[in-house]
Amino acid sequence: MTTTTAPTPFAETLGAVTGVRRVVQADAVLCLVSGGLLFAGAGPIADVAGLEPTWPVAAVGGFLLLLGVNLLVLARASARHLLALTPWSAESDFVWAIASVVVAVAVSMTGPGRALVLAQAVVVAAMGVAKLRAVRAAR
Question: Is the model's pTM score more than 0.90?
Answer without folding.
Answer: no
